[in-house]
Amino acid sequence: MANYDIVGSIAIVKFPRDAKRSDKLRFAREFLSKHKHIKTVLEKSDKFKGRLRTQKTRYLAGVRTTETIHKENGCVFYVDVEKCYFSPRLSEERKEIAGKVKPGERVLVMFGGVAPYAIVIAKLSKAKEVVSVELGRACTKYAKLNVEKNKLQDRVEVLQGDVKRVVPKLKGKFDRIVMPRPKLKESFLEQALAKIKRLGSIHFYGFAGEEEKRKLVEEIKKECARHGKKIKVSRVKKAGDIGKKFYRWRVDFRVLN
Ligand SMILES: C[S@@+](CC[C@H](N)C(=O)[O-])C[C@H]1O[C@@H](n2cnc3c(N)ncnc32)[C@H](O)[C@@H]1O
Predict the structure, then answer these.
(1) Residue 229 has pLDDT above 70, yes or no
(2) I want to staple 85 with a disulfide (CB 3.0 to 4.6 A). Which of 53, 64, 184, 255 is the partner?
(3) Domain segments of the chain: what residues?
């Protein structure tokens, strides 16, 4: 059985490894005729890879494009599904985090992508300011466009560059930092801890199996301690499936000092 994601008018389908090309094409044509709002069917031909977490796709049917407009949480996102990471599956995550933001907060989103977290937070909360930092140039171009399209220029700022270089230069500290991290070794906690206010909240995304969940939390605590910070973990939540028995976890914690 094929599984798929819908981003705007594009369906990105993942087929079983042994699926035949003729079956894929038939599936794609049937998909288009059954789902009138879908204009393009692409095959996901590889995993999200590299620092930019981009995926390779192969054209199957419909309009030949990788660019689309996705609607979520009352916001619109322009995105190229090959040049930028974007997961429609994280829409509830974004809404949930936006719901935690109190009026007047300064929020930092590291690894911002096309700015879905920053935009949903600004749209659904009364945050004073949201800053989104993203390494990829293509993603940043879409992020800036998305801020304009959602009319949030006065509250959302998009910065391009490596979190390690950009975040230390930011003025002031933040009430909340969201870390939808790429699946890479570095934790980037050092940069976050240097910019969080006392009693501020961090939402850290990490990747682990069910059994390693506790280890993930212990490592976060240890690393915070190494930087002289005491934390109180309030929640560890499964925030998505990454592979077989391998998950994305969201660890929510407050920095006490
Ligand atoms: C898992 S994606 C999340 C994107 C976005 N927050 C979303 O939910 O759609 C991780 C993003 O981090 C970016 N990235 C990777 N390393 C980075 C770094 N050192 N500094 C800034 N951004 C980085 C990637 O380009 C990618 O867009």
Answers:
(1) yes
(2) 53
(3) 3-65, 89-255
